[in-house]
Design brief:
about 120 residues, mainly beta
Length: about 120
């Protein structure tokens, strides 16, 4: 299984941005796809997760009500729709695939929110 995240960029505070995580390979091995982020000088933070074969989602407290993570099964793509962005959302965002005994990471994509 391979994951590739893209869609980062520069956005003003209060704006919106959508990231994409394209999944390829043996997707039947996946349990879910999660988004994490790492801001400069901070630890990695959980953002969201969606089941690969279901619709159950989880969100980190800092993004609840602002971010959603829909999935397009036909395209094997998971999105991170980010609304009402804040400067503290500035980070490198990673998507990760959860397998039975492993987590696979895609490369990160930088999101910068200007005040």
């Amino acid at each position: 299984v391979q994951l590739q995240a893209f869609g980062g960029g520069l956005v003003q505070a209060g704006g919106s941005l959508t990231l994409s995580c394209a999944v390829s390979g043996r997707t039947s091995l996946l349990y879910g796809v999660a988004w994490f982020r790492r801001a400069p000088g901070k630890d990695r933070e959980f953002v969201s997760n969606i089941q690969w074969s279901g619709d159950s989602t989880l969100y980190g407290d800092s993004v609840k009500g602002r971010f959603t993570t829909p999935r397009d099964s036909a395209k094997n793509t998971v999105y991170l729709q980010m609304n009402n962005l804040k400067p503290e959302d500035t980070a490198v965002y990673y998507c990760a695939g959860g397998l039975l005994n492993n987590i696979l990471w895609g490369q990160g994509t930088l999101v910068t929110v200007s005040s």
